[in-house]
Amino acid sequence: MISKNRLTPSGWAIIVLGVSALALGGCGRKGPLDLPPTANVAPGAAPSDTESERAAQPSVFNPTYGSEAEPAAPRGNKRPFLLDPLLGN
């Protein structure tokens, strides 16, 4: 019995285009956006953040933000759950 699961040239083209699209999708430059050439840039306008100022700002990449704050809601009563005997609670 002969298997007909071989890829045709169009199948290979789809795979190559998909892989190249994924590879090129990750290309780019990390940093702020470039200003247009006609934008007026004030001299010395570069932001100067210190480490403590950065720690005070909320961010997805700042896991310590808000760790000193109290919880927003008080703890409620514990309700039984089906898997409590398995978890040892």
Structural description of this entry:
There is one protein chain. The protein has 89 residues and is mainly α. Helices cover 30% and strands 0% of the residues. The radius of gyration is 27 Å and the shape is flat.
Percentage of residues in strands: under 5%
What distance lies between the first and last C-alpha atoms, to the nearest angstrom?
Answer: 58 Å
**Helix coverage percent:** 25-40%
Cα shape: flat
Rg from alpha-carbon coordinates: 27 Å
Structural class of the secondary elements?
A: mainly alpha
Low-confidence stretches: none
Give average pLDDT, whole number. 75
Number of helices: 3
Q: In sequence order, what are the helices and strands, one letter per element?
A: HHH
Largest sheet: none
In total, the number of strands is 0
Please describe the structure with a list of short key phrases separated by commas or semicolons.
single chain, 89 residues, mainly alpha, 0% strand
In short:
The chain is mostly helical and 89 residues long. The chain is 30% helix and 0% strand. The chain contains three helices and no strands.
Q: Which helices and strands occur, and which strands form pairs?
A:
Blueprint: H1 9-25, H2 51-56, H3 84-87
